[in-house]
Amino acid sequence: MGIFTHVCLGSNDLERSAHFYNAVLAPLGIVNLGPFLDQGVGYGRRVPELLILRPLHGRATCSNGATLGLKAPDRRAVDDFHRAGLAAGGEDAGPPGPRGAVPHAYGAYLLDPDGNKICAYCFDPP
Fold this sequence. Notes:
Elements: E1 7-10, H1 14-25, E2 31-36, E3 40-44, E4 50-53, E5 67-71, H2 75-87, E6 91-98, E7 106-111, E8 117-122
Parallel strand pairs: 1-4, 5-8
Antiparallel strand pairs: 2-3, 3-4, 6-7, 7-8
Helix pairs in contact: 1-2
């Protein structure tokens, strides 16, 4: 059960960001739902929950210290998320593997082309 209605990340190049997010979100079953107003792109399964937006005022800056965590259906999806992100211009911020904070946690981290940190996690036993 989630607690958010949506999450927004800023981008200075929406075309580049859409290329990246189309690639990394596909293994997680999250799709590009098209333009969000005239400001960006919406992603989700049925309704836009992740918005990649051009800032209304100024340039987008990365969220240093913040991480957007996405739920993966299985460990293979985590691996595919990471691989797709690197191929689409992302930067490695932590390769796929076990994480110690929660039992059975398996995750991977990326920096998107604007420097925002995102990750994908699966909590199923191996």
